[in-house]
Design a protein that fits this description.
The protein is an alpha+beta fold. It contains 20 helices and eleven strands. It binds protoporphyrin IX containing FE.
Length: about 500
């Protein structure tokens, strides 16, 4: 019979056992982070690789897990992503410090997955940190000022008119039943491309799904459940290695398509009369600086690669989140007819008061705003937000060392019965007085200086879209519309699991 000593020598066995003991000791030490700070935590296990495996295996579990954890551990607790601690904070006072007062200590969202988005998108606002982020953010911020948004109103109105036209055709020929995910996705892409880049991408034309929509969908279908993702979560340094080969979590054909599209938009712009347009693309081109200028410390302006990367992120961020927000609002209104009627009444009163759908009129629509806010709470487009500590800090007695990753359970906080009565019900009335809503417990667009740069653009687009739609149609459910609450998927945004078909009924038929 074979004995252990026949396989390896005594010295080798001593070495192997010592290595295992040392490794176990190292892990044990790493997993003392929360215990040593008396912070409750989900006990990590070796084969669960901390708490990572359950997340990778079932990302959709995030919707229930954050609520269960809060019940078990309270608003501040920890989990381990393999050896790295992730501090989950749902405490309003501490979040206020992190997002606003101590922003200089928490300027970035995370330190992982920043360099594996393809060489162009690695330079986008979502991925950049430090001085590069500051320079790009301050360059892009003026694009979303009130005067610029006002100037974009007409374009957004035209795109919304196209949606109404295509719904009218569906109503005339197909009984009004339409795929709401597809319709609002096409609208949001048309709006962002037309308003920000003066580009007609034909996303609302034809029955076939246009290539641009197919490609945009690819960007949001990436799954966390892959071996490479697991390795990246476990060994963050791998990112630097993979980025050397320009490896990306996004499909290569999607990156090539969008970088080609933005490059061609830039080329067209350089040689055409569109130079007069004051849109996002022109603002970026007006402040185009060289790599050399950046190396020499330029504090404003963007390089050509940054212009391409940020154009891509605006198109993608504008498409998915806003399209989904409109889809869920349409669903909520179709399933709450009394609320829908009140919105329609408000639209009529606004048009009477302002003479048309003006920027000020739309912004002053209180009830529609309440419905949007409530819909964003119920189907929170970004389920978790994050910040990372840039230096050691203690907030309200909570010691947070440099490098600690903080996660904010945005979806969990929006569905916590401690803060919301019947949290899974659609009740716009609870959003009547936003001064009574804690902005840290309800942050669909994030908070502080690094919040969503496109927030006001998105809200204007949703309002205009629904004003146009509800002027002409009632929204209704069809036989196969799923019942509430909708089942959700957690990818790199939240998405409805099932197709959502709704029905438009022309209002003149009433
Ligand atoms: C309903 C629609 C939208 C929702 C719910 C949403 C939500 C968010 C959230 C939660 C963040 C993170 C903020 C933080 O860390 O505090 C974010 C960031 C961002 N969003 Fe949006 N967003 C929407 C629409 C848009 C649109 C239309 C655009 C582009 C025109 C856009 C562009 C961005 C960009 C570039 C960032 C990164 C900002 C930075 O790091 O400086 N978003 N968004």
């Amino acid at each position: 019979m074979l004995t252990p000593l026949d396989v390896l020598s005594v010295e080798t066995w001593i070495l192997v056992i010592s290595a295992i003991v040392l490794f176990r000791f190292y892990i044990h030490k790493k997993w003392q982070f929360f215990k040593s700070r008396s912070i409750p935590y989900e006990p990590p296990t070796l084969l669960g690789l901390g708490s990572l495996v359950s997340f990778i295996k079932n990302p959709d579990g995030i919707f229930t897990r954050d609520l269960e954890f809060k019940k078990k551990y309270g608003p501040i607790f920890g989990i381990y992503s393999w050896l790295s601690p992730v501090l989950i904070i749902g405490d309003s006072e501490i979040l206020k410090q992190i997002f606003i007062k101590e922003f200089s200590t928490f300027p970035d969202r995370q330190n992982q997955f920043l360099k594996v988005n393809g060489k162009e998108m690695n330079t986008s606002l979502l991925s950049t940190t430090g001085d590069q982020w500051k320079r790009i953010r301050s360059t892009l911020t003026p694009t979303f000022s009130s005067s610029k948004l006002k100037a974009m109103m007409g374009i957004i109105e035209q795109c919304s008119d196209k949606t109404v036209e295509s719904l009218k055709m569906i109503s005339d020929t197909k009984g009004g039943r339409f795929d709401a995910k597809e319709t609002f996705g096409r609208l949001s892409l048309d709006v962002i491309c037309s308003a920000a880049f003066s580009a007609n991408v034909h996303s609302q034309e034809g029955n076939e799904t246009p290539k641009i929509i197919q490609m945009a969908k690819k960007a949001f279908s990436i799954s966390f459940a892959s071996p490479v993702m697991l390795l990246l979560f476990m060994f963050p340094w791998l990112e630097t290695v993979l980025s050397k080969f320009d490896w990306s979590v996004f499909p290569r054909d999607m990156l090539t398509y969008f970088s080609g599209l933005t490059e061609s938009l830039i080329e067209k712009r350089k040689s055409s009369e569109l130079k007069q347009r004051i849109d996002l693309m022109q603002l970026m081109l007006n402040v185009n600086v060289s790599e050399e200028d950046v190396k020499n410390g330029a504090t404003k302006g963007m390089t050509l690669n940054e212009i391409i990367g940020n154009s891509m992120i605006m198109i993608l961020a504008g498409y998915e989140t806003t399209g989904n927000a409109m889809l869920f609002l349409a669903y909520n209104l179709a399933t709450h007819k009394d609320v829908q009627e009140k919105v329609q009444q408000e639209i009529e009163e606004t048009i009477k008061e302002y003479g048309a759908l003006t920027y000020d009129g739309i912004n002053n629509m209180k009830y529609l705003t309440m419905c949007i806010n409530e819909s964003l709470r119920l189907y929170t487009p970004v389920a978790r937000n994050a910040r990372i500590a840039d230096k050691d800090i203690t907030i309200n007695g909570l010691n947070i060392p440099k490098g600690t990753l903080i996660h904010v359970p945005v979806y969990g906080m929006c569905h916590d019965v401690e803060y919301w009565d019947e949290p899974f019900e659609f009740k716009p009335e609870r959003m009547e007085d936003m001064n009574k809503i804690d902005p840290m417990l309800y942050m669909p667009f994030g908070a502080g200086p690094r919040n969503c740069i496109g927030m006001r653009f998105a809200l204007m687009e949703i309002k205009m879209g629904f004003c146009k739609l509800l002027q002409k149609f009632d929204l209704d459910v069809c036989e196969d519309t799923p019942s509430a609450p909708l089942k959700m998927l957690f990818r790199n945004s939240i998405q409805a699991k099932d197709d959502i078909f709704l029905k438009v009924v022309p209002r003149c038929n009433k």
